[in-house]
Amino acid sequence: MKNHHLVKQAVQQKKQKQLQKGKSGISWWQLSLIGIGSIIGAGFFLGTSLSIKTAGPAILFGYLIAGVTTYFVFSALAEMTINDPQLGSFRTYARKAYGHIGGFLSGWMYWLAGVLIMSSEIVALSTFTQFWFPDVSLWLFSIIYTVLGIGVNLLGAKNFGQIESIFAVIKLATLLAFIGFGALFVFGILPLEQTKVLAETGISDWFPQGVTGMWKGMIFIFFSFGGIAVVGVTASELKNKSDVAKAGKGLLVTLVAVYFFSLFFVFQLVNGNTIDEEASPFVTALTAFEIPYLDAIFNSIIISAAFSTMVGAFFSVTHVLVALAKDRDAPAFIKKVNKRGVATRALLVTTLALGISICFSFVLPDEVYEYVTTSAGVMLLLNWFIILASQVKLRPSYQSKTNTFKLVGFPYTSIIAMLVITIVIGGAFLDRAERIGVLISAAMIVLIIVCYQLFMWGRA
Question: What does the entry list under GO cellular component (predicted)?
Answer without folding.
Answer: plasma membrane
